[in-house]
TrEMBL record:
PANTHER family, sorted: DIHYDRO-HEME D1 DEHYDROGENASE (PTHR47197:SF3), PROTEIN NIRF (PTHR47197)
PROSITE patterns linked to this entry: PROKAR_LIPOPROTEIN (PS51257)
Listed InterPro entries: DUF5074, Haem_d1_sf, Host-pathogen_enzymatic-act, WD40/YVTN_repeat-like_dom_sf
Pfam families according to UniProt: DUF5074 (PF16819)
Protein name as catalogued: YncE family protein
Length: 379
């Protein structure tokens, strides 16, 4: 009996095992395949956000800023777009607009001694404000100026000499490093943050250096001396950092004809060349992307050579009239060039050119249009 029972139990076990394997095999054959979700990528720019600095008002002691939205697909422009979407004004003295991931970041400098300095974070698709990250403590304003991004972090320079690190998921400030007052533009290369220390009449700092911050420790490792009043930084196709120095002005704000660009090797953080531009025009600002570099400013809009620092041919090839180029932005997918033209300073416009210098379209913005960011169609 015991032997027979064990034999039956053994046979039964094999039977159950076979049935289990059969159904398991059927399940594997019939189950739906696991779909790997791929992240969406930008297909084409379908809209343009424009930050307008606004006209200075003596009543409020600042410039009321705004955002214009232009639909490329529909050829429609909406002025005061931020206010329409959010039911409140953007703020005063806004300085920079840039997108990262699914969000749009606007740096609102505000005014000294007021609680109106912040970074307004918006949904890139709708323009709806998600959070205002404050840059003031009591009556002490940091006066933020520019923003850049790297590996899920945002870095914001400020006139008070600080650079703040923001987590782009939580939108909280994680750390801060103190440099010299009057900070302007900043870029990232070789896991280092480069920050321009400008010559500002109200925020007196070193005024002639680019500070280098190690992103691993978030501490300053050195200052690189450049010509007076550096404000703009751009990385070129050669891998070098180019620093635009505005030079000096007289007491009546007349340009002293001493603009320059310094070329820095980011591997060694040493100066390689300094290019002088004594053209009688306001200092040259530079923008680079995908091997293209352009120089612009008052009366200047030219192709810039990253090899010898020369100002080459005029960029515009079809006689399109441009007043004052307040800023130049290159759209990453098409390499189209967007010129923010201040015009007569009461109302401006944005002109889109193909990379060959021929105009594609333009649209009216508000006073002193500056940086632009793009809304994309994804695939």
């Amino acid at each position: 009996m015991e032997t027979r029972f064990l034999r039956i139990r053994k046979i039964t076990s094999y039977t159950f095992l076979s049935i289990a394997l059969f159904f398991s095999s059927c399940k594997k054959d019939n189950e739906e395949p696991v779909i790997q979700i791929q992240p969406l990528t930008e297909h084409e720019a379908i809209g343009v956000y424009v930050l307008n600095e606004g006209v200075y008002s003596s009543e409020i002691g600042a410039s009321e800023s705004s955002i214009t939205f232009y639909s490329i697909k529909d050829n429609l422009t909406e002025q005061d777009y931020y206010k329409k979407v959010n039911g409140q004004s953007l703020g005063v003295n806004a300085n920079y607009l840039k997108s990262y991931g699914s969000k749009l970041y606007c740096v609102v400098t505000g005014t000294e001694g007021d609680q109106n300095s912040y970074v307004d974070v918006m949904d890139l698709n709708t323009g709806k404000s998600i959070k205002r990250i404050v840059f003031y403590v009591a009556s002490s304003s940091k006066m933020p100026r520019y923003i850049t991004f790297d590996k899920g972090k945002a870095y914001v320079s400020a006139y008070d000499g600080s650079v703040s690190k923001i987590d782009t998921s939580s939108l909280n400030i994680e750390a801060s490093v103190q440099l010299s007052k009057g900070l302007e533009q900043l870029v990232i290369a070789k896991n280092k943050l480069y920050v321009a220390n400008s010559k500002h009449p109200f925020y007196e700092g070193k005024a002639n250096v680019v500070s280098v911050v190690d992103l691993n420790t978030f501490t300053k490792v050195r200052d690189i001396e450049v010509d007076t009043n550096p404000t703009g930084l751009t990385l070129s196709s050669t891998g070098d950092l180019f620093v635009s120095s505005q030079g000096t002005y007289s007491d009546t704000w007349e340009f002293q004809n001493n603009a320059s660009v310094t070329r820095i090797d980011v591997n060694t953080d040493t100066k390689k060349d300094i290019y002088k531009y004594n053209s009688g025009k306001q200092a040259v600002s530079l923008t680079s992307h995908n091997g293209l570099t352009y120089a612009y400013g008052e009366g200047v809009l030219k192709v810039f050579s990253v090899f010898d620092g020369s100002l080459g041919v005029d960029f515009v090839k079809d006689n399109t009239s441009i007043g004052y180029t307040n800023e130049l932005t290159i759209e990453a997918l098409s390499n189209n060039v967007y010129i923010s033209d201040s015009g007569d300073f009461s109302a401006g416009k944005v002109i889109c050119f193909e990379k060959n210098g021929k105009k594609k379209f333009d649209f009216i913005a508000q006073a002193f249009p500056k940086s632009v960011a793009f809304k994309y169609l994804y695939k």
